[in-house]
Amino acid sequence: LGSSVEVEGAEIDEDPDEDDLLGGLKIDTTAELEIPDRLVDQVIGQEHARDVIIKAAKQRRHVMMIGSPGTGKSMLAKAMSELLPKEELQDVLVYHNPDDGNKPKVRTVPAGKGDQIVDAHREEARKRNQMRSLLMWIIIAVVLGYALIIVGQILVGIIAAGVVYLVFRYLNRGSDAMIPNLLVNNGDTKTAPFRDATGAHAGALLGDVRHDPFQSGGMETPSHDRVEAGAIHKANKGVLFIDEINTLDIRSQQHLMTAIQEGEFSITGQSERSSGAMVQTEPVPTDFVMIAAGNLDAMENMHPALRSRIKGYGYEVYMEDTIEDTPEMRRKYVRFIAQEVAKDGRLPEFTAEAVEEVILEAKRRSGRKGHLTLLFRNLGGLVRVAGDIARGEDADLTTRDHVLQAKGRSRSIEQQLADDFIERRKDYELQVSDGYVVGRVNGLAVMGEDSGIMLPVMAEVAPSQGPGEVIATGQLKEMAQESVSNVSAIIKKFSDENISEMDIHIQFVQAGQQGVDGDSASITVATAVISALEDVGVDQSLAMTGSLSVRGDVLPVGGVTHKIEAAAKAGCTRVIIPQANEQDVMIEDEYEDMIEVIPVSHISEVLDIALEGEAEKDSLVSRLKSITGSALKEGGVS
Ligand code: ADP
């Protein structure tokens, strides 16, 4: 169970070097790799979810998958349909009910038989029609002949022939009604059905009966012919996949539950005032395995009974976002690129160097030391853009250069926004990246998931009328106040006598951005405030990020790589990061020469680097060390 297929088709060095991004694979291009036949073997990472799917396929259990988009939920659901037995597949036919035209009858037959039955009925109807029209033409000939020769009245003959024609048309009317409607056809199906009902409206999910504009008078389409199957019926004996399950309206969730419980569900018209709503078929089988998916809050908005149904009769799995970076994993990522190239069918194969660049990106995107990202849809996007660029150049292979170009093009919206923002701020000279300024520090924040932005913090200290206050302005007020309260212990101790009579104003300059997350600004705020209190300038060619403990330790933060790149883009030449984040740094080569990364573990080091003027600085730093020194001795970085 769950043993994953290794990479095949290429020679492997069993004990590869740590910086061998291909994990010991000896290949020139991705063309040399074999791709596993079964979809379930193509799934990379998600070991737990994979095991569950294989188990659930054997036992025909429902599964709930929770996790980020693009981690392989629908891929696994599809893989499950390949694992279900094909022998049990059925065709479903709907017949006219002579006793009640609004209650069509339903029959199930083994897969492939449905087509034959419909063909047989068609053939019979065709023969019957042939016989009838032969008879009709004979009678018309006799009538015409009689009128012409015996009576000598041509007009009477034509009228009589017309009457005969209409009588036959009327008699023929019902003959098509005898042909059944092949509702579900599994005749050509190679595996058990897989139906993706994500975002389906009620009719597409539960089946529908079309409206008939001619409801009487011999012109109407018989009701059984207007019946349409829903995803729940087409998924019979297979897999029904519904992503974003919480967005399904409650009524549909209830009906879905009924279908799961009963294993069958009648089809009726979904729009209430149409003629279809009068029609209701006999129950149609809905014996499917459901895979419901969504992100974490999907579970909260899901119908509780439906959730407990899955819980009680199936499995729940959580999809991982990152995976540990090992040589074996790297080899699988190489195979991932080969898979995506094969799936697309038009992309040139990747060279080994191009593959390395993609794997480097997978490391970077994980945002975690020693991990690779499992957000494969996005990574696949990068592969496709790179391949498209290569194809546009008529290149035989996709090279490292194509991947580098693709990285620039496949920037996320947040990244594009951040870049745009930086450009605009440069125009207005809001960005300062040289000289010394009192009370102003270049902070860094992450926007969205994958882009950094430089966010200057300004502090001003003024004598207070009443008791001293910390006043934060700008749109990131809450965040500022939180940062301040985190560092206030240090600041208070630092300037013991006069702070109680001072108002400290803190402003996040131009933070007019939504979705800027900045819990990591506390060393920035502390530095700005100390600079303002002591009237010592701060180096503006420096940017910084880091969280601060009440004892002065600089604690790790998220998104350092993106933040460093943002600082470089904004023109800074040095950047301070927490020591504990040192291994998370995976900046691209182009930035490496632009900016010096300085890891620190204590706020005194930050001041030492950031502040201007040797003498004042030294006294400040030693003062800080003395008030937080005990913390330093107790233990380093947390
Ligand atoms: P989800 O349903 O979780 O949003 P999908 O299954 O639709 O994600 O993934 C989109 C595409 O990304 C897949 O078709 C596949 O090419 C690739 N992919 C996603 N997850 C994986 C994975 N774990 N292993 C290999 N490829 C993956």
Topology, pairings included?
Blueprint: E1 11-12, E2 25-26, H1 39-42, H2 47-59, E3 62-66, H3 73-83, E4 90-95, E5 105-110, H4 113-151, H5 154-172, E6 181-184, E7 194-196, H6 202-206, E8 208-209, E9 227-228, H7 231-234, E10 239-242, H8 250-262, E11 264-265, E12 284-285, E13 289-294, H9 296-301, H10 304-313, E14 314-318, E15 322-324, H11 327-344, H12 352-366, E16 371-373, H13 376-392, H14 400-409, H15 413-427, E17 436-438, E18 440-447, E19 451-463, E20 470-473, H16 477-494, E21 502-508, E22 516-517, H17 522-534, E23 537-539, E24 542-544, E25 547-548, E26 554-555, H18 560-569, E27 574-578, H19 589-592, E28 596-600, H20 603-610, H21 614-634
Helix pairs in contact: 2-3, 4-5, 11-13, 12-14, 13-14, 16-17, 20-21
The chain binds adenosine-5'-diphosphate.
Which characteristics define this entry?
4 domains, elongated, binds adenosine-5'-diphosphate, alpha/beta, eight-stranded mixed sheet, Helicase, Ruva Protein, domain 3, five-stranded parallel sheet, Rossmann fold, 638 residues, 18% strand
Structure overview:
The chain has 4 domains: 1-31 and 321-410, Helicase, Ruva Protein, domain 3 (Orthogonal Bundle); 46-109 and 188-319, Rossmann fold, CATH 3.40.50; 113-184; 429-634, Ribosomal Protein S5, domain 2. It is built from 21 helices and 28 strands. Helix 2 runs parallel beside helix 3, helix 13 packs across helix 14 and helix 16 crosses helix 17 (522-534). The structure holds adenosine-5'-diphosphate. Adenosine-5'-diphosphate binds at residues 42-46, 69-75, 243, 336, 340, 376-377, 380.
